[in-house]
Amino acid sequence: MDFGTLHSFVVLAEELGFAKAAKKEHTSQSTLSRRIQSLENELGVQLFHRDTRNIELTEAGKEFYFQANKLLEQYHLAVGLTKKAVEGYTRKLRIGIGYYEQFFLLPFIGRFAREHKDVQIDLYQFIYETLLEHFIRGNLDIILTSDQFLSSISEEAYVKQLLWEKDWSLILSRDNPLSAYPYLDRKQLRGQSIITMYNGSVDMIRRVYHNQAFVEPFKTITRVNSFSGKLTLVAANMGIGFIPSFAEVSSYKNICIRKLVPAYTPRKFYILCKAQAYDHTLSDFFTMCRAAAQEITR
Prior knowledge:
Number of helices: 10
Helix content: 40-55%
Largest sheet: 5 strands, mixed
Strand order of the largest sheet: 4-3-5-13-6
Distance between the termini: 51 Å
């Protein structure tokens, strides 16, 4: 399996049409078909259902699409880091964030770059599990992350500082009848559809609501893989979601924010770097980041 074939599979999975996918891949439909057939033979599974008019992913294809994107993401990261290694900056700072942490960076990252002109800044965004994996492997110098997987690492090896530990908010469409309430009790959410970005969050939400004596309080639980995906579905009134209160949603005019009573506090957010790498540059970054976090969460 090569990354070219992997990329062809991803394009076809997104386009669901050989003509469109072949055009994007700058190849012929027959060549693309041979690549997919070769991939299916190698894996020993059928990735697509095909007939004379339609093409769609099998269940195996859907899973492989998710995994293939992770592989390509890691490949492109490796290529990017290799190229940056010869560009002549005195120092490179590779920063990783998860779903929400860009809001901590926005107030200060430009000033930091101006004050540290010899530092090449690269910014990467991953799901939290992958983010921590890259950090542990040494692919990232600093990460801004939730505490979702931090219990798996040794605290002695890292400098870790808390950025945020306040209550989360509920987001919902203005078309949702619950938007008429300024505050919402958890019991009012029974029968709603929940939009979440990680399977672990599903388990956490269910545990919270199990304490409310509901066997299954929600109509459906839908997983998305991005913050924008969550906002899009909530704005379309396809469900409600939980977000940290520092996250900005004002560009989505059909979304409103409501507080929950009692409060919902599933996660904290931290900034981390490896202890042996902590120096003046990273100290400046930590200081600016903490100040920005304090400002936006007042």
